[in-house]
From TrEMBL:
Signal peptide residue numbers: 1-23
DNA damage found in the keyword field: no
Top-level division of the source organism's lineage: Bacteria
Keyword DNA-binding: no
Species name: Paraburkholderia bryophila
Subcellular location(s) per record: Cell outer membrane
Any matching Pfam family: Porin_4
Membrane topology, as annotated: Multi-pass membrane protein
Name of the protein in its database record: Putative porin
Cellular component aspect of the GO annotation: cell outer membrane; pore complex
């Protein structure tokens, strides 16, 4: 029987820089590079040290930007690609941006997004329960591994926050690659309430396509912070 143990986690490098494209515009280049190595031992003589990418974080780079078009409105976009920090190869060579690729509009009405994007439920839970987005062994997010993380052809609406209450809605439409039907392959609704240290969210999601999951699921999560500590 082989046993695996981590000898060193390697180096994690992240960067983010914002440069003004125009007087009312910003574009941010960001990324995370996580490389490491592990020591693999066995009862025989085949022990070895191996290089591993993404030991703690998902190695990725991305661009996000916003342009003020007047009247309190902003046009936003975000593109994000995952790749191997050991070889430089894209996680999925068939996709130029396999994690995020959306454009949207925000203002006093809230925000709408179109394209490949995270599900609202995942965004709410991950930000509230694992602010470092590490998804480590001890992360509370491991209790929600069944969640759909992101979907193609997404259309989402994020409401403004009223007295601590906000809601997020998303549908993912089918296209020619995933068959016929009523046109909706996935939908997700999340309601969140934040009041001081209290953060409570409830959501429902349903996927009708094999690529995004099947059936429906409910999620209820909450947390409370007291000083520098948080309880979930």
């Amino acid at each position: 029987m082989k046993r695996f143990s981590t000898l060193a986690s390697g180096a994690v490098l992240s960067c983010a820089c914002a440069t003004p494209a125009f007087a009312q515009s910003t574009v941010t280049l960001y990324g995370v590079l996580d490389n490491g190595f592990v020591y693999q031992s066995s009862s025989g003589s085949n022990s070895a040290i191996r290089a591993v990418p993404g030991g703690l974080f998902a190695t990725r780079y991305g661009f996000k930007g916003s342009e003020d078009i007047g009247g309190g409105l902003h046009v936003n976009f975000q593109l994000e690609q995952a790749f191997s920090g050991q070889t430089g190869a894209a996680t999925n060579p068939a996709e130029a941006f396999n994690r995020l690729a959306y454009v949207g509009l925000s203002g006093g009405f809230g925000e709408v997004r179109f394209g490949l994007q995270n599900s609202p439920q995942y965004d709410v839970l991950q930000a509230a329960m694992d602010p470092s987005w590490v998804k480590s062994i001890a992360s509370p997010m491991n209790n929600f591994n069944g969640l759909i993380i992101r979907a193609n052809n997404g259309i989402s609406y994020y409401t403004p926050t009223y007295d601590g209450l906000n809601a997020k809605f998303m549908v993912a439409l089918r296209d020619s690659s995933n068959g016929s039907g009523n046109g909706i392959g996935f939908y997700n609704v999340v309601v969140q309430y934040i009041n001081g240290p209290l953060n409570v969210a409830a959501g429902y999601e349903r996927g009708d396509e094999p690529s995004v999951g099947a059936g429906g699921s409910y999620t209820l999560a909450g947390g409370a912070a007291a000083g520098p500590q948080a309880r979930y």
